[in-house]
């Protein structure tokens, strides 16, 4: 298992009056990459109420603007793995044009949560193993 790269389609509605992608849209792109990464080790029929996740923190560092016709992808990989939480790291890459490179970087903190009990839980062992392999990238 390794980091994931997700192609991103920029929609006309993603672009603001300054003619670049609005800052909040980057969180949607991070989410798309996060879901692709989680799907590598969490079964499609997983019961999210028994072993779920809460997004506890999002960070975005904007490096250069993204425009409507840019070709971009979102990359996600694992950072730190804790007892009840883990960090996911992100990068938005421009793949074409005059200025290819990293347009934004981000981090999210994911907390394991039992929605039935209403409390945080330990990171499931299989998830820990998979995330540990991802953090070695």
Radius of gyration: 16 Å
Task: Provide the number of structural domains.
Answer: 1
Q: How would you sum up the major sheet?
A: 6 strands, antiparallel
Structural classification: alpha+beta
Average the pLDDT over all residues and give the rounded result: 93
**Briefly, what CATH class?**
Alpha Beta
What is the percent of helical residues? 10-25%
The beta-strand count equals 6
**What's the overall geometry?**
elongated
CATH topology: Thiol Ester Dehydrase, Chain A
Architecture (CATH level 2) name:
Roll
Q: Order of SSEs, N→C?
A: EHEEEEEH
What is the name of the CATH superfamily? Hotdog Thioesterase
**Termini, distance in Å?**
9 Å
Low-confidence stretches: none
Structure report:
18% of the residues lie in helices and 38% in strands. The protein has 137 residues and is of the alpha+beta class. The protein has a single domain (4-135), classed as Thiol Ester Dehydrase, Chain A (Roll). Strands 1, 2, 3, 4, 5 and 6 form a 6-stranded antiparallel beta sheet that branches. The chain is elongated, with a radius of gyration of 16 Å. The mean pLDDT is 93.
């Amino acid at each position: 298992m390794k980091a994931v790269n997700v192609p991103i389609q920029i929609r006309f509605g993603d672009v603001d009056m300054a003619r670049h992608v609005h800052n909040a849209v980057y969180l949607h792109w991070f989410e798309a990459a996060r879901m692709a990464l989680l799907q590598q080790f969490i079964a499609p029929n997983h019961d999210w109420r028994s072993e779920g996740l809460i997004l506890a923190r999002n960070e975005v560092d904007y490096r250069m603007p993204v425009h409507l016709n840019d070709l971009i992808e979102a990359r996600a990989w694992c950072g730190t793995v804790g007892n009840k939480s883990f960090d996911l790291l992100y990068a938005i890459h421009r793949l074409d044009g005059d200025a290819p490179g990293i347009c934004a970087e981000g981090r999210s903190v994911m907390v394991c949560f039992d929605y039935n009990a209403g409390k945080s839980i330990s990171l499931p062992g299989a998830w820990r193993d998979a995330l540990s392999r991802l953090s070695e990238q």
